[in-house]
Design brief:
By secondary structure, the protein is an alpha/beta fold. The protein has one domain (2-238): Metallo-dependent phosphatases (Purple Acid Phosphatase, chain A, domain 2). The chain contains seven helices and ten strands. The protein has helices spanning 14-26, 45-55, 63-69, 75-93, 128-132, 214-224, 229-238; strands spanning 2-7, 31-34, 58-59, 98-103, 106-111, 152-155, 162-166, 169-173, 186-193, 204-210. The strands form two sheets. Strands 3-2-1-9-10 form a five-stranded mixed sheet. Strands 4-5-6-8-7 form a five-stranded mixed sheet, with no helix packed on it. Helix 5 (128-132) links the parallel strand 5 and strand 6 (152-155). Helix 2 runs parallel beside helix 4. The protein is globular and about 50 Å long. The termini are far apart. This is Metallophosphoesterase. InterPro entries: Ap4A_hydrolase (IPR050126), Calcineurin-like_PHP_lpxH (IPR024654), Metallo-depent_PP-like (IPR029052), Pesterase_MJ0912 (IPR011152). One of its GO terms (molecular function) is phosphatase activity. Belongs to the metallophosphoesterase superfamily. YfcE family.
């Protein structure tokens, strides 16, 4: 059986990312897919970007990755753009929007928010019609263009881990590594099955929670001069959304 760790929404929180990567190593998992939002919110976007490019088999683009990398000269966004530099911004711009593969006979698609948009948001308590749209063939650029609906879909964006099956299909959200908004522990998912196989076989989806040193991350953020410090600190400590 092949195992794939699915991570998302690190948001410049290198402390949480390293804790999750250590947990993935301890489990002996060698394949990692990242579903975007590497940058923004936290203090170390550039370190997170290059760490993910180093260890992840695939990194797809998130909404923060998109709008930070586009020409945007608001002071708060400029802080992140100046951190990343030209090379980092070009890396973010070049990320695919989705990845597609077969796992134990399931057509799997992983993306940040929605198969047709980085900015279309589907919550865990959203309407069934919204969730059904998550299985549409993607229009975002990526691997293995197959014009048929998905069997198994995973995404990030909402920072809230969950899994749901309906209409003979399965939808899951891997949660957030660096900015979880359901529990204060970092979250990621593990897919297990026969990678690349179109034949039905056993497969599984599991969720992992990893404790990390939140106060250390807050100290680093406080010393960085980053924008949005107060809401960032509140979110790390409470796992509740704060308006930016």
């Amino acid at each position: 059986m092949d195992r794939i760790a699915v991570i998302s929404d690190i948001h410049g929180n290198l402390t949480a990312l390293e804790a999750v990567l250590d947990d993935i190593r301890q489990r002996g998992i060698r394949r990692i897919i990242c579903l975007g939002d590497l940058v923004g919110k936290g203090p170390r976007s550039v370190e997170v970007l290059y760490r993910c490019m180093e260890v992840c088999e695939t990194v797809v683009q998130g909404n923060w990755d998109d709008f930070v990398s586009r020409d945007n000269f608001e002071p708060s966004v400029l802080w992140y753009r100046n951190q990343l530099g030209r090379e980092g911004l070009l890396l973010l711009q070049g990320l695919p929007g989705q990845t597609t593969f077969f796992l134990s006979g399931q057509l799997v698609r992983l993306f940040h928010a929605h198969p047709t948009s980085l900015f279309k948001r589907v919550y865990f308590n959203g309407a069934i019609g919204q969730k059904e749209s998550m299985f549409e063939p993607p229009t975002l650029p990526g691997t293995l263009a197959i014009p048929q609906v998905s069997d198994l879909v995973g995404y990030g964006d909402i920072h809230h881990a969950y899994i749901e099956s309906f209409s003979m299909k399965t939808l899951f959200n891997c949660g957030s590594v660096g900015n979880p908004l359901d529990l204060t522990q970092a979250s990621y998912a593990i897919l297990e099955g026969k990678l690349g196989s179109c034949n039905d076989a056993p497969y599984s989806i599991s969720f992992c929670r990893v404790q990390y040193d939140i106060e250390r991350e807050i100290r680093i953020a406080s010393e960085s001069g980053m924008p949005f410090l107060e809401p960032y600190v509140r979110e790390l400590r409470t796992a509740r959304y704060s308006r930016y």
